[in-house]
């Protein structure tokens, strides 16, 4: 090493220290890492002159982390200044390793910004507490921008529990123009829960769970099964008690692996016979039951019948949990789910497998979850999936505005209830008239409706397995209805204001849950001594620093070039970066949305290799990496 001469001044040291702080925070690494002898040895090899500047763990925690938070906030403020649209405030409470906290996020322009983590302490978490905290946050954020709350925010979204609904009612007194929406993904998940609770379907799902659990729980059977699939198929999976949508995934994995399972339990499979010979008592009975069910044709018929029902609903949930969801999607996807359920109920195969009573209960359950049900006292028993806001959004979305020959009385009445919160008197009558003209497709906006619906028409010869898949295909072809109303909606000025605000609302709180999972990545049992203040700063940086880097043009150009130079991977657009740490136990990590995000992020990481960096440093790349000095020049502690 004597042939190298290392040097490092204070300014260079500050840049390196700040980069280390970004690395620690962005990857949820413990601060004590910097005091490890192995880490110091690694740093010494990179630049021995920097070692004397390397701070202790407490300095990173107490000095550099707050500085990183301040700088990240500045970038987030810049992001909000460039995005003129309104924000949706989302919140959710969850249990951490040391207590209970509330995560608050803001969603704007398909991006999630972590806002605040609230520690209720000894306060009782009821509707009053949530209302006070949400009002405080909205007023504080609006004051920072020197604007009224209703110009900064378009709505609030949270789970459909009772205290959240009461919180919405309290906030509506202060901010009547905001939309208060229960999480649509949560409602759809409850729909699958309702379907699974139907006795005959519940028995079939339990039977599928037992088969999957047997394979995963028995070490030797699991190893044998993995050797059979050899990467050609996905491993069997289970679903946790609060993630009902993944019951469809469990059934799909079983059906897909049917041939492998049948070959595995066949008498010719000497490995399975040998494993079974060593089983005794209750375990031997489990082996016999497993083998009998795998070889039973009727069992697979029952699995297939339930999967055909739950599969489309699960696909709709996964799509509606994505970023960029609008309120009009709710009606579109539910109408597709109803069409699939109706076709399922009339299928001769289904009629042979399930009883007529079960089929009728399925259709009744779909209707109840859509409209909602009440107790005899008038209180809500089941939260309805469709709100007045969703109905109005369906009417105003040019891609899906129904024909004037369709029954529309209910849609119009629901839309009028929303408009009554924004207008009164003569203005209310005028905006109702504008809504009627939209429905009748009058004028320029009528031409826009016809053109938009023509653009998402399914070409001849294209077939879909379900109406939900067809609807998802159409939704992926749509542009932002909010932008369409901004550009083309001047014909209906009063309705335009409501439409733009409505289409800016995010109707799902899955983004909040992703941030909650990120908290679990940071605040583990091994780091349970971290204070809530430190956890909040780490979480703020963990989430928002990824968004900042995603939106930084210079860094984006470098990553784009590096990935395009890779021969083994195609370039993919980086999606919302909040992901869940992979977990071997599917009962604790079964969010396919997060798995997809993780896979895409992994593909980006693989494509951006040290060989790419080396190529750029030798001048072989199209563009050398640029360093944003404003990110790293900070006074030394």
Sequence-ordered SSE layout with sheet pairings:
Elements: H1 10-26, H2 37-46, H3 57-82, E1 87-95, E2 100-108, E3 111-118, H4 127-145, H5 149-152, E4 153-158, H6 162-174, E5 179-182, H7 184-196, H8 199-217, H9 219-229, H10 246-256, H11 258-265, H12 270-277, H13 281-294, H14 297-320, H15 328-345, H16 348-353, H17 356-371, E6 373-374, E7 380-382, H18 388-396, H19 409-419, H20 425-440, H21 443-455, H22 467-477, H23 481-488, H24 493-503, H25 510-522, H26 532-551, H27 553-565, H28 592-607, H29 610-617
Parallel strand pairs: 1-4, 4-5
Antiparallel strand pairs: 1-2, 2-3, 6-7
Helix pairs in contact: 1-3, 3-26, 4-6, 7-14, 7-17, 8-9, 8-10, 8-14, 10-14, 14-15, 14-22, 15-17, 15-18, 15-22, 18-19, 19-20, 23-24, 25-26
> Which secondary-structure class do the elements indicate?
alpha/beta
Beta fraction: 5-15%
Total strand segments: 7
Low-confidence stretches: 553-637
**Distance between the terminal alpha carbons, to the nearest Å?**
30 Å
- Largest sheet, order of strands side by side? 3-2-1-4-5
Average residue pLDDT: 83
Outline type: globular
Number of helices: 29
Proportion of residues in helical segments: 55-70%
Radius of gyration: 28 Å
Major beta sheet, specifics?
A: 5 strands, mixed
